[in-house]
Please model this.
Amino acid sequence: MKYDVIIVGAGPGGIFSAYELVKGNEKLRVAVFEAGHCLEKRHCPIDGEKVKSCVGCSSCSIMSGFGGAGAFSDGKYNITNDFGGTLYEYVGKKEAIDLMKYVDGINMEYGGEGTKMYSTAGTHFKKLCLQNKLNLLDASVRHLGTDVNFIVLQNLYGALKDKVEFYFDTPVERIELTEDGYRVICREQEYDCTKCIVSVGRSGSKWMERVCRELEIPTRSNRVDIGVRVELPAVIFSHLTDELYESKIVYRTEKFEDNVRTFCMNPYGIVVSENTNGIVTVNGHSYEGADKRTENTNFALLVAKHFSEPFKDSNGYGESIARLSNMLGGGVMVQRFGDLVRGRRSNAKRIQKSMVTPTLSATPGDLSLVLPKRILDGIIEMIYALDKIAPGTANDDTLLYGVEVKFYNMEVELDENLECRYKGMYIIGDGSGVTHSLSHASASGVYVARKILDLFQGIQ
Ligand SMILES: Cc1cc2nc3c(=O)[nH]c(=O)nc-3n(C[C@H](O)[C@H](O)[C@H](O)COP(=O)(O)OP(=O)(O)OC[C@H]3O[C@@H](n4cnc5c(N)ncnc54)[C@H](O)[C@@H]3O)c2cc1C
Model:
């Protein structure tokens, strides 16, 4: 079987590559190989009642399948070069923003219309943050919400399914070089193509490492972000979330001069657990529909760690911390802030008496037995700093779930076309280590599709 373009991975990077390719040239033969299920079959068995924690499905429906890791996400598309990836280093700052706006336009066309775009432009919170040693980063954020995000994906699939060949539940095992392109090898069959776009995301990180090793594609180690997810009554943060929805705030700690930052804010949302390669960590969602809202807001507080010499395995370090928390808590652990600062573990009784009702069933425990002192001290400092702009953040009953770890793929050496050392092989999205967000990953897909369309110009 021979295709013009094969895309490995149907996350936002892969979907937007496919979209742009067939929009630009309907004659192109494009195939998408996806390890996970089609959208309708994606279902996480955790229902909070019969199945309370991760059962380790062979293909994790939260991370894999049409829509990628983003399918059940909060659908926050941040339009910014300040965070979410370093795409701008390859394509330029203006082009990166234009691509993200283009993706936003498509999302609006395919079901996102009517959702709100928030912006930090002109907000008085910038000054309030600076007055309290906090830095509010600039961004516009489109909040689709988990429910609308799903509808957009359904519509995009509807638009693509007759123009692109989708192979679901078909993990690509290897990629080989051929005389005029690439051979994509799956368990039962092999497929050839002229151009190959690899967009395997976080869940494909180990696979990506292996492919880079086999094909001798140079890589660099990336950072890992470690911290906790904070859950508190939504009213404490509502002045910020009503205006900005998601505020990315950075705090430089006094003790170690480390940066601690807020990440993935979910007003009126829920805390969820997630399983990456068998390690259970914590994350959050929120919904656009009022009926699914909770009374809580959650967000992560993260500290970045990057190891280089002699120990290079930043992700391995993060994994070990997550494993330790899994060992002590049997999964995700929860602790009241008041218990943490008093140096005692939380127990079921104290959590029950707490004014904040947890939205995730987690094991009460002691995060100080899991997180390194330097990271924990930074988080505690930041909670007190946030308390100045959102009084109540440092209340005893504020819940901290651990651990939240943001793993980043190693950075693949790419040129300005996002092509690796082999011409015609593009590595994009989170799998490349260049992006780590929906907007940047999607934008990288559009970018390489346009590069490929230029090369196929004239094919009718
Ligand atoms: C719970 C959760 C919430 C999130 N919320 C947000 C948010 O609100 N805003 C935001 O910007 N980002 C969010 N993110 C991050 C965002 O989802 C990712 O940055 C984005 O999905 C990356 O897109 P991608 O296409 O690069 O990779 P992915 O979305 O990870 O897609 C990669 C796809 O490749 C497939 N694959 C992997 N290996 C193979 C293989 N060998 N063969 C075939 N297929 C393979 C995988 O199954 C997967 O479907 C969230 C992530 C999670 C898990």
Notes: The mean pLDDT is 94.
